[in-house]
Amino acid sequence: MGWLRRGPRRDGEDAPRDPRFAYFSEREAALFRGGVRSAFAELGLEVNVYADHVTDDRGRQFGLGNLAAVCHQDPRGPRVWPRLIHRHINLVVRAMDGPSALDTLPPEQIRSQLYPRVVSGEGIDPDTFGYARSLAPGLYEVLALDLPESVMTLTDEALDRLGDPARLRDRALGNLRGLPVEEHETVRDADGVSFEVILGDSFYTASRVLDLDGVARRVTGLPLGEHGALVALPFRHQLAFHPIRDTTIIPALGTMASFAASGYEDTPGAISPYVFWWRDGTLTQLSEYDADRGGLRIVVGDDFQELLERLIAQGPDGR
Questions:
Q1: What sign for the dihedral angle of Cα 240, 243, 248, 250?
Q2: Whose C-alpha in 125, 291, 310, 314 is 20 to 30 A from the C-alpha of 113?
Q3: Could you tell me which residues come within 8 angstroms of residue 39 by beta carbon, excluding any fewer than 6 positions away?
Q4: What pLDDT, in 10s, does the model give residues 88-102?
Q5: What average pLDDT does this structure show over 142-164?
Q6: How far apart are CA 143 and CA 270, in angstroms?
């Protein structure tokens, strides 16, 4: 499925690695950061380049994580990095320096282009995004304005200008439900364990976990049912789920935990490396990183353990 592509003409794994972006060798990281500095200089901006961000003389900060992952994932290798870097930085600077869409677009057009986004908590400053809804440890829901060349994540200040946050969220969810399903695959492993995967270029593909029952009906023809589903949202362009109906949940949980961790690694727009239990719109984390063993482990609370025991008692056919 291509979520962990590696490009040609890259340094081998035995080359010294960059401390911040371990998928780069030290040489590749220097090449990447040099390209970033050059791209800003071409736009007339002198920047200080740090491990994972740059700052300009006006104190503005630009993160490098997504751009680094984009370069790493491109199968053409380092020869195209200058082009990718220049295009990305040009869009970012143009968006920062140009007039705000909140000032130029009519209010109804703004509302028609609002979408909810599920994002990692790493980029959420509580002083700026006080309205953000916590969905699970490390996961937040925010509102975003979809623009032709960028996505504007809305801050508290922006929402104050637009109206009641609850009504804006309702409109954004309606817009999300109206999006098409770009691509759907059923993934099966060698043991026959299966789960559904939604993919797409939309920045809101993973955010469709907020309408999971509706998405499940569209791609499988069936509602999720009372037990909900296992769900994973490794990065913004991918959402996976497994409806919970019988004991297939047990092998599916391990398979999806590995899938989520692999999809999250080195990916632009990374959200979470874990698998969750979705039930009536609530997410409960079921996997975590085990620092002692250096890998994943499954963690279940009393409610999920009780569900497992009930499904086992019902038998493999769910009866």
A1: positive
A2: 125
A3: 82, 85, 86, 89, 90
A4: 999 888 877 778 888
A5: 90
A6: 17
- Residue 306: the pLDDT is 94
Residue 230: beta bridge partners?
242, 277
Tokens of 209: 């976990």
Write out the two tokens for 49.
Answer: 């380049």
| Conformation bin of residue 266: beta by default, left when phi > 0, alpha when psi is -120 to 50 | left
Task: For the chain, report the end-to-end CA distance as a whole number of angstroms.
Answer: 35
Q: What angle (nearest 5°) sits at the alpha carbon of residue 138, between those of residues 132 and 139?
A: 50
Give the separation between CA 154 and CA 101, rounded to whole angstroms.
11
